[in-house]
Design brief:
Blueprint lengths: L3 E4 L5 E4 L3 E5 L17 E9 L4 E7 L3 E8 L1 E6 L4 E5 L2 E6 L4 E6 L7 E8 L9 E6 L9 E6 L7 E2 L5 E7 L4 E5 L5 E9 L2 E3 L2 E3 L4 E4 L4 E6 L3 E9 L3
Parallel strand pairs: 13-14
Antiparallel strand pairs: 1-20, 2-3, 3-4, 4-11, 5-10, 6-9, 6-11, 7-8, 7-10, 9-12, 13-15, 15-22, 16-21, 17-20, 17-22, 18-19, 18-21
């Protein structure tokens, strides 16, 4: 299809460190694919499974918008701004790394794995003062509709970041038909299928597939099973 890119789940990069099993939609760490570096401003989409009591030690970031979405279990977070919090399923966390931060994340729960998405976007402003935000979402608000979880606007629903990006989560019944209208001209959408089977503008997609589309004003989504989807609308030029 024109103006699209398809990333089937089994073509993602993979790392198994024992305590961490990760799948990479875009080049990350030791996995490099020159055709899979980014989608517009979207640089990283990591699908992580973290073992009990394990996690990422203190490490630095700068000039990146970092979004964490726990799918199962919890993540304990600490950072150099003095934040210490637990992120749970149903929460969304964002850090604007700006001039530089250090943080750590680990799974605090004995006997349980944590599954989470880590997403990085390039910002539209460099060297901002680092900031942290965490919110709890009402998961009922995404049943058979899209729930906005991120935008560029502090007064809007969800967290906000330094980028003209909008994220939505939706959980749909089988045989649903949904239209998503893009928020800004010049943006594209990268759809990540959390579960189920569906089509977007006629492209068949399955669990953990990624599908990017640009030069379009809307998406036509049809579910063939119960399905859950994350839409990431981002600038293609930034």
């Amino acid at each position: 299809m024109k103006n699209t890119v398809l990333h089937k789940a089994n073509t993602r990069g993979h790392a198994d460190h024992g305590w961490l099993k990760a799948n990479f939609s875009f080049s990350f760490g030791s996995w490099y694919n020159p055709e899979r570096v980014q989608f517009g401003a979207l640089r990283v989409l990591n699908d992580d499974i973290i073992g009990e009591g394990m996690g990422f030690g203190t490490h630095p970031h700068d000039n990146m918008e970092i979004i964490t979405i726990p799918l199962e279990g919890d993540l304990a977070h600490k950072d150099s701004m003095g934040n210490a919090a637990t992120i749970k399923n149903g929460d969304v966390q964002v850090m604007s790394a700006g001039t530089g931060i250090q943080h750590s994340e680990f799974n605090p729960n004995p006997g349980l794995k944590t599954k989470s998405l880590q997403i990085w976007l390039f910002p539209n402003k460099r060297n901002v003062t680092p900031r942290y935000q965490q919110i709890s979402l009402n998961k009922e608000d995404r049943i058979n509709k899209f729930q906005q979880i991120l935008s560029p606007n502090p007064e809007d629903e969800g967290v906000w970041i330094y980028q003209d990006a909008w994220f939505h989560l939706g959980k749909f019944d089988k045989d649903s038909s949904i239209t998503y209208d893009l928020k800004k001209e010049g943006n594209g959408v990268y759809a990540f299928i959390l579960s189920g089977k569906l089509t977007i503008n006629g492209q068949e997609l399955d669990t953990r597939d990624g599908f990017g589309i640009w030069d379009t004003k809307s998406l036509e989504i049809k579910t063939t099973t119960d399905a859950e989807i994350l839409l990431m609308e981002v600038p293609m030029k930034y």
